[in-house]
Amino acid sequence: MREGQEIFDGEIIIEDGRIVKVLTKEEGNKDESLNLSTFHQIDCQGNLLMPGFKNAHTHSGMSGMRSLADDKPLDKWLNEDIFPVEAKLTGEDVYWMSQLSVLEYLTSGITACFDMYLEQEWVAKAMDDMGFRCVQTGGVNDFSKDVRWIDYMYNKYNEPGSLQSYQLGFHAEYTTNMDNLKLIADVVRKNKAPLYVHACETEAEVKGCVERYGKTPVAFLDSLGMFDYGGGIYHGVWMSEEDYEVMRKRGMYVVTNPGSNTKLASGIAPISEYLKRGITVAIGTDGPASNNCLDMFREMFLVAGLAKLREKDAAAIDAREVLKMATVNGAKAMHLDDCDVLAPGKRADIIMIDLNQPNMQPINNIEKNLVYSGSKQNVKMTMVNGEILYMDGKFKADVETIYNKVKEIVANKAQNLQ
Questions:
Q1: Are strands 18-24 and 48-51 parallel, antiparallel or unpaired?
Q2: Three-class SS state of 104
Q3: Region 185-191 average pLDDT
Q4: Which of 54, 110, 131, 241 could be 105's S-S partner, Cβ–Cβ 3.0 to 4.6 Å?
Q5: What is the DSSP secondary-structure string of 192-237?
Q6: Which among 261, 264, 265, 259 is positioned nearest to 236, based on CA atoms?
Q7: What is the predicted pLDDT for the residue at 28?
Q8: Where is average pLDDT lowest: 34-38, 197-201, 211-215, 351-355?
Q9: How far apart are CA 13 and CA 2, in angstroms?
Q10: Could you read off the pLDDT of 122-144 as tens digits, one per residue?
């Protein structure tokens, strides 16, 4: 995924969680400095190695609510079903449900997620115990933790070399009163840090913000100083000219979530407009209760397909650009600058794609195969920080325990989850 780098036959040398060398086959044969007898060697048998996908927006701890509150518009889904359930979840519940989501990420070749959810210290523990890379962002609103929480977490979980990191954020304008919004802006200024938030997801949300404050969500939050240091928005479906200009000027990211937006009938994000204006687009699955599938292949196809449909132009977006959104751009949006491509010094967050499957043959164009015909069945290996967490359908984690714990949570709280 490096710019200008064509796919080639070669090898990758990994030590201590980082890529040490990326060599062509010819370079590998000539490199006498390598004593490969000291390495664990994997013959990839002609399959494809590439950077892992970055799930740039999700709510991992919602996996226990999968398929329990479907076929409703977003406002009813949230207020009638999701918020009441979340009020009853414990930290341990979130711990196990987050681990269930990680299992699904691994099967989809996802090596890092940008997570916004409750009980964030439990989420960090779940991710650490799974050996999974996670960037969390604040989900505070009027019904959850004090705004000071995001300041505390930002300064706790950004240790160099850790699998866990944190970015400032909050749930949304429509769930946060003006007093709290001003406090959040103060935290942004104090830390001189970017901020991430759900914004412009539905037409009703935008209209409501305009009625309250006379501005769209992006323009209004910017007027408070929220985006003085950049950041990004999740969804970004209903945008104005002013919104685009704010995002361009601030160097912001947009994380599109086509699966969730389609299922909740929120609309189709204007991907072509973002690209025309130089706004970087990343891809997220959203949570397992609203999507309900944590599948980057499905998201990539939807990004491309819906953009073409929206513009009524089959050339509206190219498959390679979508693949970049799912890998390199996601890493940028998540501030994982050492996880974006396969190059010396980068983190060894690598996936292997099985090309010996019917949907990958013939190999006329690997990038287009991945976006238009690829699926989770093609993920042969998922490696995070040099550790193989999933290979040939088998996990490093204790899958049975995770399944049973989540079943217990749902069974014990069935009256709350149904």
A1: unpaired
A2: helix
A3: 98
A4: 110
A5: T--EEEEES-SHHHHHHHHHHHSS-HHHHHHHTTTTTT-EEEEE--
A6: 261
A7: 82
A8: 34-38
A9: 17
A10: 999 999 999 999 999 999 999 88
pLDDT at 375 over 90: yes
Q: How many CB atoms lie within 10 A of CB 33?
A: 5
3-class DSSP state of 339: coil
The answer to whether residues 254 and 281 touch, using CB atoms and an 8 Å cutoff, is yes
- Rounded CA gap, 219 and 236, in Å? 12
Q: Within 10 Å of residue 415's Cβ, how many Cβ atoms?
A: 7
d(CA 217, CA 181): 12
Lowest mean pLDDT among 46-60, 69-83, 181-195, 362-376: 69-83
Whole-number Å distance between alpha carbons of 260 and 147: 27
Q: How many degrees, rounded to 5, is the angle at CA 304 between CA 218 and CA 170?
A: 30
Q: If we measure between CA atoms, which residue out of 378, 365, 351 comes closest to residue 318?
A: 365
Q: Is the pTM of this model over 0.90?
A: yes
Peptide bond before 292: cis, by omega within 30 degrees of 0?
yes
Whether residue 135 contacts residue 335, with contact meaning beta carbons closer than 8 Å, is answered with: yes
Tokens standing for residue 399: 């899958």
DSSP state of 7: P
What is the C-alpha to C-alpha distance for residues 401 and 131, in angstroms, rounded to an integer? Answer: 16
Edge to edge, the sheet with strand 350-353 lists: 48-51, 350-353, 379-384, 387-391, 394-395
Q: With beta carbons less than 8 A apart as the criterion, state whether 231 and 251 touch.
A: no
In whole angstroms, how far apart are CA 365 and each of 2, 107, 353, 362, 369?
A: 17, 23, 14, 8, 6
Residue 32 pLDDT greater than 90, yes or no: no
CA terminus-to-terminus distance, the chain: 43
Nearest by Cα to 370 from 308, 315, 313, 295 = 295
